[in-house]
Amino acid sequence: MRQIPGCTNWGRSSTSWLNRPFLFIWLPILTFALVTGARAGAWEAPAWADTLKSPVQLDSAARAEAAALYQKNCSVCHGQTGKGDGMMAQGMQPPPADFADDPDLPYDPIGGLYWKILTGRKPMPGWKKDLNQEQIWALAQYIKTLGPPAAPDSLKAAPPDTTRQR
Fold it and tell me: What does CATH list as the number for 47-146?
C-alpha cells in the first residue's frame, strides 16, 4: 500500500500509535487545561483545617496590628477594603478574593482561612515564613471583618420542606 506524504499509516504498523497527534499533542494540552482549570476554581481548605480554632482574641490592640499587617502584606492584591482591587490584582489568575462582597465569608470556618493564609496558593504566597502563628490568626480574624455581616438566625433561609407531597 502506497503512503501519501504527510499522512500517517493508521493501524498498519506496530508503532502507529506513536504517529497519532492526539497522544502527543492534544492529550498533554487537555491534561494541562484540566489540571490548571481545577486549581483556578474555588479554593477549599482541607476538612481538618476547618476544625481549627483561633487561640487569639481580636481585641482592639490585636485588631490594629492585624489591620497594619493587612495593609502591608495583603492590600497590594486584595485592596484597601478587601474588594480584590489592589494595584497588583489586574491580570492575576486566579484573581484575588473579594472579601467585601463574599456572602459566604461570615460562615467560612476561621481555621480554613488561617490555613489559606499560612500555605498560600499561586499567585498568593504562603505567609508561614514571614508571619508568626498569632499574626496569621489575627489576620484571618481581621479579614472576616472585611466581609458582609452574618445574617441573624431569624433571617437565614429555611431549608426546603422535603416532607410535603405534591
Answer: 1.10.760.10
